[in-house]
Design brief:
about 270 residues, alpha+beta, D-amino Acid Aminotransferase, Chain A, domain 1, D-amino Acid Aminotransferase, Chain A, domain 2, 3-stranded mixed sheet, 12 strands, about 25% strand, globular
């Protein structure tokens, strides 16, 4: 079954091949994307995803074809046209189409697409069983806070996980667990929720923010603990202990396939 597709202001389906061969998203990975779920044809955190996409587009100097109002109307119409009640929405905005060259024209017209798709979300059995993890070196570019379509390193990491009969690969850089190849990462140690601080090494996850908010509400995390756990604190003793903790965490995951305690990998898309 073909999915409903929005393409530059018109409606079609994914059966139609609409993307030009010289679109810069296709040839250069010059694009930003978002994925979010919808349930009972209601989008989940859609505006939060739009604001993250808007920030990413500004960071790479691509014009956003939507504002919050027009984006909301587009998603509402997309889901009205969708035949099933639950799934994911994929959105992508590229710089646009022009003759292939590293230099690109100013004021290009962006290419915008959006489509809905069925998706198998984790069921209760998987939630109770948990998932198996491996660790791999973080080989991504240095602006992981921008949700770029350049996902080769992520895809290779996921393939390594699949070949190891695992469900997710944790990306490790400088001895620090960053995040999953397609997920945010939290670990609970002695009743405290720990995660990587927001910086250029990780995606500012929408669900990640909600998880931290819940943890704060239940007094399971201190506002400074993100920085403390990964050595972001200026205190050398804390930073040294943090480095040891991270190495021990990585060794435990490599040995057992699981993080110590009750670990949770929070899927973002993060189906893509």
């Amino acid at each position: 079954m073909n999915d409903v597709l929005y393409f530059n202001g018109r409606w079609t389906t994914t059966a139609e091949r609409v993307l030009g061969v010289e679109d810069r998203g296709f040839e250069f990975g010059d694009a930003v994307y978002e994925v979010f779920k919808f349930l009972r044809q209601r989008p989940i955190f859609a505006l939060d995803h739009f604001r993250r996409m808007d920030r990413g587009l500004r960071e790479v100097e691509i014009r956003n074809p939507w504002n919050e109002i027009t984006f909301t109307k587009t998603i509402e119409e997309l889901l009205d046209r969708t035949a099933f009640e639950s799934g994911i929405v994929y959105i992508q905005v590229s710089r646009g189409e022009s003759e292939r060259a590293h230099f690109y024209p100013d004021d290009m017209a962006p290419t915008a697409i959006a489509y809905s798709r069925r998706f198998n979300f984790p069921d209760q059995t998987m939630k109770e069983r948990g998932i198996r993890l491996i660790t791999v070196p973080d080989m991504r570019w240095k602006r992981c806070d921008v949700k770029s379509v350049n996902l080769l390193a992520n895809s290779l990491a996921k393939k390594r996980a699949q070949r190891a009969a695992a469900d997710e690969a944790l990306l490790v850089g400088d001895g620090v667990v960053r995040e999953g190849a397609s997920s945010s990462f939290f670990v609970v140690v002695k009743g405290r929720v720990i995660t990587h601080p927001l910086d250029e090494h990780i995606l500012p996850g929408v669900v990640r923010d909600r998880t931290i908010g819940l943890a704060l509400a239940f007094h399971r995390i201190a506002p400074s603990s993100e920085a403390e756990v990964v050595g972001g604190d200026a205190d050398e003793e804390k930073a040294a202990k943090s480095g040891r903790d991270q190495r021990e965490l990585q060794q435990t995951i490599d040995r057992t396939g699981r993080a110590p305690g009750r670990d949770d990998v929070v899927d973002e898309d993060r189906a893509g």
